[in-house]
Design a protein that fits this description.
single chain; 533 residues; alpha+beta; 4 domains; five-stranded antiparallel sheet; four-stranded mixed sheet; binds adenosine-5'-triphosphate; kinase
Length: 533
């Protein structure tokens, strides 16, 4: 019943914001075209606002889960046109807070103690309320000021139901409009499902926060609040309270004499450190999650919160990124193409020259601009688009990285419009490359891997024996098949020989053709051959 009400609400939003207009009817197959023309609201609802704004408003009207979906969708620039991505990126989940009494119940149930016992002070008025969680201020008995993040009650059920509906819509879309496959609606929903369900587990967020804090523990670039593990459960998380200026509040930052150039460059440095040193990056870098500590405005330090979404990279991904970025900026498209083939990102049958030409077509216009105006993020977006045409399955972690890079760039340029991203990033990449191939780097890699190799040695021996056994079994099977094929070809030769002899005899003595019982000869031949198989 709830599902039906939801469905009616969704159809209502489609009608009100004329979201059906986002589809080009003339390009649809005949039955879908008829169906679309039969939609009743086409004839009495007009909405002349730009399509991107209508889509944003439609999602907003459907509430927090769809807003979150829109936010995640906005990051798929590899699939969506720019106007839609830009507009969806403006979606903000301003959500009504839920009653503090509900928050208290969840906290007490999770931590098995009354709030008054758990905290010295608990602020019933929430500090912030978003789609998934609500944040309350509090003080521990030991005196530390903290914030308590609580998952919205009943939200998981709503999310799971909405996701089922989204899958249903995606299937319908693909069935009705074959072209829609290009937008990969099922993949987009799957992406969303994973991200949002991960965000529901605050233990996961707490673990990510701890890891990021450890990675930057003595860094002047980034501060990450401490997690209080004794107060963390899947629906409740308690962490150190931070005090900083929201990064979007550039007026306050400037009024306090913050070194904006340094701030912008530090953002890029943090990103490249996370990617090329730690292979672990905060992947939800929207301005609401970033604050600045301006205790010393000439040395501004970032403060990062909300580590619900993080990305991790495999060493191969890291290598791929570094090599590609370096080759790109040297405009060595052949190398970029070759790297794609060598690393198996595109199938081995790919013609390197063709991939090289496609990459050149995409990149040359971008490099027309001065280096400082080039967007790394857009470059990656375009590269992935090309790679997809060449059957490269773009890994989700790379899509996450591309989205983060776009955020970091956007933020950096907002803070300091002349930010030269390449100049800031190049030393990191080149240093990383040098490290990898230096004797130190190689010995470090060997040292890191030796314990694993030693531990897996007994297994390796067993696996090797197993493989040898399997190979010899396969060989025996192949030999047997080979012998049978030999025998059969011998029999076929024998049968062929008899038939050739008979044919020759008929040619020499044509009168025999009427005397020979042909059916008998053929049946006898085939029967004899089968019996001797
Ligand atoms: N450690 C903290 N100290 C001070 N304020 C905090 C802290 N953590 C969160 N907040 C406040 O609460 C707000 C929401 O927190 P957070 O981003 O973690 O929640 P969320 O539900 O994941 O929100 P969203 O998903 O929309 O980013 C922040 O924008 C900030 O104002």
């Amino acid at each position: 019943m709830l599902q039906l009400t939801r469905l009616i609400k969704i159809v209502g939003a489609i009608a009100r914001y004329r979201l059906d207009d986002l589809v080009e009817i003339d390009r649809l197959p005949f039955p879908a075209r008829v169906l679309m023309r039969l939609l009743p609201w086409r004839y009495f609802i007009k909405n002349t606002e730009p399509r991107a704004i209508r889509l944003r408003k439609g999602l907003e009207s459907l509430g927090p889960i769809f807003i979150k979906f829109g936010q995640i969708l906005s990051t798929r620039r590899d699939l969506l046109p720019d106007d839609i991505s830009d507009e969806l990126a403006r979606l903000q989940d301003r959500v009504e807070p839920f009653p503090a009494a509900d928050a208290v119940t969840i906290i007490e149930k999770s931590l098995h103690a009354p709030v008054s016992e758990l905290f010295d002070r608990f602020d019933h008025e929430p500090m912030a309320s978003a789609s998934i969680a609500q944040v309350h201020g509090a003080r521990l008995h030991s005196g530390e000021e903290v914030v308590v993040k609580v998952i919205r009650p009943g939200i998981e059920k709503v999310i799971r139901k909405d996701i089922r509906l989204m899958y249903g819509f995606s299937r319908l879309l693909i069935t009705l409009i074959r072209e829609a496959k290009r937008l990969r609606p099922m993949e987009v929903v799957r992406d969303y499902e994973k991200t949002i369900l991960d965000e529901l587990d605050l233990l996961r967020e707490a673990a990510n926060t701890s890891q990021l804090r450890r990675n930057f523990i003595s860094s002047p670039l980034l501060f990450v609040p401490q997690v209080y593990w004794d107060f963390c459960k899947p629906s409740v998380m308690v962490m150190e309270r931070i005090y900083g200026v929201p990064v979007a509040d550039t007026e306050t930052l400037k009024a306090n004499g913050t070194d904006m150039k340094k701030l912008a460059e530090r953002g890029v440095e943090i990103f490249f450190t996370q990617v090329f040193r730690d292979r672990f990056f905060h992947a939800d870098m929207h301005p609401g999650n970033i604050f600045v500590d301006i205790t010393d405005p000439s040395e501004p330090r970032y403060i990062g919160i909300d580590c619900g979404i993080v990305g991790t990279l495999e060493p191969e991904d890291q290598y791929y990124l570094a090599c590609n970025l370096l080759a790109f900026f040297k405009r060595d498209y052949r190398k970029v193409a070759q790297l794609h083939v060598d690393s198996g990102w595109v199938p081995s049958h790919t013609v390197v020259g063709e991939l090289e030409a496609a990459i050149r077509t995409v990149c040359e216009p971008i490099f027309e601009r001065p280096l400082k105006d080039i967007s790394f993020g857009h470059l990656l977006v375009r590269l992935f688009q090309v790679a997809r045409r060449f059957e490269m399955e773009v890994q989700p972690q790379l899509v996450l990285l591309e989205k983060t890079l776009l955020n970091v760039e956007g933020l950096g340029r907002q803070l300091y419009p002349d930010l030269d991203l390449w100049n800031t990033a190049q030393p990191y990449l080149e240093k990383w490359m040098k490290d990898q191939v230096s004797p130190c780097g190689i010995s470090r890699s060997v040292r890191d891997n030796v314990p694993d190799w030693l531990l897996s040695a007994p297994n390796m021996a067993r696996n090797a024996l197993h493989s040898v056994k399997q190979i010899s079994e396969h060989q025996q099977k192949l030999m047997a098949m080979h012998n049978r094929a030999d025998k059969q070809s011998g029999k076929l030769k024998w049968l062929g020989g008899v038939l050739v002899l008979l044919a020759a005899a008929v040619l020499v003595f044509p009168e025999w053709s009427t005397q020979i019982p042909w059916q008998g000869v053929i049946m006898g031949g085939v029967g004899g051959w089968l019996l001797t198989r």
